[in-house]
Amino acid sequence: MTTMTTAQFECCLCGGVSEQTVIKSTSSFGAPDLDTRPPELQRSTIYNWVQRCPSCGYCSSDLSKGSDDLSEIVQSKEYQSIIKNKEVSEIAGSFLAMSFQKEFMEKYADSAWSVIHAAWICDDEENWLKAKELRIKAINLIEKAKEHTQKLADQAGASEAITIDLMRRCGMFQEALDLAELIKNGDDIEEVILRVISYEISLIKLRDIDVHTVSEALGEIN
Question: Is the pTM higher than 0.85?
Answer without folding.
Answer: yes
